[in-house]
Amino acid sequence: MINNIIEIAQISPSPRQLMIQKMGFYGFIHFGTNTYTEMEWGDGTADSKVFNPVNLDTDQWVSTMKSSGMKGIIITAKHHDGFCLWPSQYTEYSVKNSPWKDGLGDVVGELAESCKKYDMKLGIYLSPWDRHEACYGTEAYNTYFINQLTELLTQYGEVFTVWFDGACGEGPNGKRQVYDWDAYYKVIRELQPEACISIMGPDVRWCGNEAGRCRESEWSVVPKEMQNQSDIAENSQKGDIGCLLENIGKCDEDLGSRKIVASFKEFVWYPSEVDTSIRPRWFYHQGDDDKVRSVEDLVNLYCMAVGGNNTLLLNVPPTKEGLIHDIDVKHLKGMGNALEEMFKEDITQGYKWQSISSPSETSVLNDGCDETYWTGGSEDYKELLLFDMKENQEIKMVLIQEYIEHGQRIESFNIEVSENQSQWKRVYNGTTIGYKKICLLSDVKARFIRISITSSRYYPELRCIAIF
Fold first, then answer.
1. Cα–Cα distance, 307 to 302 (Å, whole number)
2. CA–CA separation, 335 vs 330, rounded Å?
3. Mean pLDDT calculated for residue range 412-428
4. Who contacts 467 (Cβ-Cβ below 8 Å, separation ≥6)?
5. Cβ(383)–Cβ(460) under 8 Å?
6. Is the whole model's pTM more than 0.85, yes or no?
7. In 71-195, at which residue ranges do the beta strands (DSSP E only) sit?
């Protein structure tokens, strides 16, 4: 039992959790029979022959998504309708009975090769709910599902995540399935030990909505009971809701404050993932072509999500032809260009931060090394860090990272600026930091900047402070 705030402050991520938090931004591909039937949640009755992406080009998918800044792609290998995008030997309801490539195609296989080609990680979404499979709702289905998991985790190389959602409804026989989660997890840990098990799993949690809404204070250390599968399923989407961007949903604001700490006994590292789509829905619909998120909206989403101690999973649905639409391509490339410009020049390079409480100078906060970090020394865990930019400069953004390998500790901080250190102006109030905090500023010009850590659960440890 953990009942000490200092102990909670030292709960840290597993290697696989650290890996995915460092990735930060990755993509979703929703593709299948729904693409051709104009549905979001297919009922499992669509004919396999409707699936025919005559111009499918996974190189185009991967190169486009990489251009936005993504580090990996998760493919809906099987959605709730049960149709499989790989030629599974355990069902006839798959690409092998479609007209695409005369039944000899394999979407998952082609995507895996494209990911290798463009140095992108591959992730697998496999829906536990199956509205087509006749044995769904019986113990035999758990064996069926494990067999399909095994195919996907042994035939396509390294997988960075297996993504399960919480949808669970009736199958074609009117029965609901009792999922054997422990057995599923065991297979994943044995076959892909480095892979995260996300959402309906112990490694990464859902943020609580599909609209891209983020919490002001995002703790990666939360009550252990948040890993309860039945609670996750209860709060998951229950049906085809249409425009997901309007579905704010349940999103408890406080998951890790001292009030929460006092209310629960056990805590775990369980970081948040924000999942949303570039379009109003998960699958491609021609009627949404004029509703693609703008470059500005995508950049803001990135800054809020990735810059708010979440990972960002952005869905980009291919068209019936098997291509990412030109509008989506344009906006994704624009997003990548905008982010590259934003993070192009860290003006702290070549200079040192000064710790006022020590007092001492440190170069580890901007040395570009992922393994070095600064540790505060104040007994009350409050710290003040100062940087001299040598001349007045416009400041648009400050990026701060904790060294989460040792835990998440900082509860509040602020940013102040001055032209001569005689008068200071506060330009930002922040709460949690975690792996990454992006602080956007407007109309700020100064020579000196200082970061005040006003509350921390234990000695604060920072990997990086960058100014742009």
1. 7
2. 9
3. 96
4. 346, 347, 348, 387, 389, 395, 397, 398, 399, 449
5. yes
6. yes
7. 72-78, 121-126, 159-164
